[in-house]
Structures are given as C-alpha cells and as structure tokens.
Amino acid sequence: MLCYRRDGQKGTDKMEMRVLSVINLKGGVAKTISSVAIAHLLAEKGFRVLLVDNDKQGDASRGYRRREEDGAGMDEIMTARRPDMGSLIQHTDFPGLDIITANMKLLKANLEVLLDQTRQQQTRLKKALKQAEEARKPLEGQMELDAAAEGTAQTAQEAAQDAPEAAGGTDTTTEAEGPQNGQQAAKDTPQAVEAEKLVYVGPQLPRGRLKTNKIFEGTREQIIASPEMEEVLKRYPLVKNMLVPVSKLAEAKQKIAAGGNALHKFYADIASLAATEGLEG
Question: Nearest 5°: CA angle at 60, between 59 and 65?
C-alpha cells in the first residue's frame, strides 16, 4: 500500500510516498486482514492511502465493496504497457483511502507475465506505483458535483428572494387592519414548517439501502419518519446525522475530508458498519 500525509497536514511538503508490503507465500496467515486494517488505521490518522490488492481472490477488494468479476485492476497493471492508473484507482467509502482491486483475471495476467520475454517482469508494479503517485486523485475531486449543486441551490434561493421585489412588493396588512391588527393576525396564524431539500453525505450503504448524494425533499421530521429511512435507521442510526441541506453540501464534504469533527466521525462509523455488512453478505 502507498501512504503519505494529506494536503495541508504538517510535513506534507517534505514527506514522500511510502510503500508498505504485506507478503507471505503461505496462505491463511492474515495478510488480507492485516493490510485492510493497516490501511484503514493510516487513513484515520490523516494519511492518504492507496491499498493495492495483489491477490486473485480479491478479498481486500470485497471488504471495501469494490470487487467486480470483470473489473480492471492489478491484471491491467501487470499486462498493459501503459496502464491508466487514474482510471484503475477507486475511492472507497472511507475518506483518504483508495484501492486498486483484484479478481480472478489476475490468474491469466500472471501467465502472460511469465510468457512475456519482451519486458522486465520485476519492475512493472514499481513503475505503476510511481505513476499512481503522480495520478493520485484527491478526495476534493469528488466535490465538483457538490459545488455545482450548491451553486444551483443558491441561485434558486436568490431568485426566490428577488421575486417580491420584481413584483413591486406586497403589503399583507391592509389599512383597515392597521399595524397592530396585522401583527396580532400574524401571531395567531400557525407557522408551517417549510419543506427543504436534504442530501445524504454519508458512504454508500450495501444492498442498495442508500446511495451517497441522494436528495430527499420535505421536512427533516417527514424524511426521517419515511418508510425508506426508518428501515435504514434500524441498522444505521447515525445516517440521520448525515442529512444536510443541499446548500451546505460542499461545506459538509470538506468537513468529512478534513477530519477532526463530528461529521467525519459519523462518516467513518457508518462506513465501518457498512463494510461489516458487506463482508457478511
């Protein structure tokens, strides 16, 4: 796995990428679980981590719910002359932790490497990891869509605020009522809770329970009490803390990426529980 301090952290300008390897020819000695645990702990400590799954069984990839039977990953690195590392690196549900996956296609790739006498075998992974350092994809890259959504929400808000002015303004208190009567009427009228758009900023949940960036419309109470959300909250009660107004989407994502705050902790706890459910299934 590769790791280095995230941008903005102390020592970022001096620390280079570090490569940690968990290797053993014997099976069943906890290579996978050690790699998965170390990667997660480093990410929690503020490092950006790229976990490289080099096992055809792909259990590390499965643990982070990124394993695909026909997906490209380590097999592409071992056989392609110029692998596109940017497309092979996948984000996980944990901030700061990415992965290059593996599956049974690695069997065929290993055979091709043995038969290929035109290129060195020993340096392919080393070169790919060097490219990975250059092609690393910061978590902030995921915020482009979020920022666009925030801009759209702000534009809608501004348009709503400008509407009364464009119409010349409306005085809801008639002369007959007078100022005092108008104020009394306002007090006597129950204030309705306005519906709003809330977006889920937590990790994607397994089995199609809930996807990241899903938008709900209604009051917070209505959304939480909906049948869909009630079912989710039975297993993931912290999900309700990851519902934020669309206008604050980019701000919430920045807090999750930065760490050291409640949103980051909620995100990590939900992702950990989701990973456990993924392994169960």
Answer: 90
Residue 183 belongs to some domain of the structure: no
Please tell me the total number of residues recorded for the chain in this structure.
281
Nearest-CA neighbor of 254 among 11, 8, 88? 8
Instruction: Render each residue's pLDDT in the chain as its tens digit; 281 residues.
Output: 666 655 545 444 445 678 888 988 888 899 999 999 999 999 888 888 999 998 888 899 988 889 888 888 889 888 888 888 878 888 898 888 999 999 998 888 888 888 887 888 778 888 888 877 765 544 334 433 444 444 444 544 555 555 554 445 444 444 444 445 555 544 555 555 578 899 999 988 988 889 989 999 999 899 999 999 999 998 899 999 999 999 889 888 888 887 778 888 888 888 888 877 765 55
Block residue for tokens 């906890």: 30
Residues 226, 263 within the same domain: yes
223 vs 219, 239, 243, CA distance in Å?
6, 12, 10
Strands 97-100 and 47-52: parallel
Amino acid identity at 263: L
Longest dimension (CA), the chain: 96
Domain hosting residue 227, numbered range? 142-161+191-280
